[in-house]
Amino acid sequence: MGEDLGRVLVVDDDEVIRQLIAVNLTLEGFEVATASDGQDCLDRVMDVMPDVITLDVMMPRLDGWETASRLRAEEGTAHIKVALITARAQESDRRRGLGIGVDAYLTKPFDPAELIQVVRELAVRARA
Q1: pLDDT in tens, 10-35
Q2: Is 76 helix (H, G, I), strand (E, B) or coil?
Q3: Rg over CA atoms, the chain
Q4: pLDDT tens digits for 40-90?
Q5: Which of 39, 50, 107, 120 could bridge across to 62 with cysteines, CB 3.0–4.6 Å?
Q6: Residues near 51 by beta carbon (within 8 Å), at least 6 away in sequence
Q7: pTM of this prediction?
Q8: Rounded distance, CA 57 to CA 37, Å?
Q9: What is the rounded distance in angstroms from the CA atom of residue 127 to the CA atom of residue 27?
């Protein structure tokens, strides 16, 4: 398991989903840290310095939209690749995500293999 694929910060208020994503990415060879909501993500992001953040949209305290906006607004985090994961799949949501500058958009329920592929591609781009 010598391949270092990069570091991922998994942000979801649902512990089951958070662990599911974390386990899948860890098994794939990523270094994974987790956060329980958007505020927790912002509090930890500079310590973790992830290549990729998977970000749930519907969360207490600070939702994924606002979290992604704040990540993009800060010089130290603007470069981090962000994949939004949401049950909301309307075109308007996708446009909103693109407007913020998120790098990928996954709809719940997601296929773990698809998630891994998206994170892998974003991590490669982050390190290019």
Answers
A1: 999 999 999 999 999 999 999 999 99
A2: coil
A3: 13
A4: 999 999 999 999 999 999 998 899 999 999 999 999 999 999 999 888 778
A5: 39
A6: 6, 7, 8, 80, 81, 122, 123, 126, 127
A7: 0.93
A8: 9
A9: 20
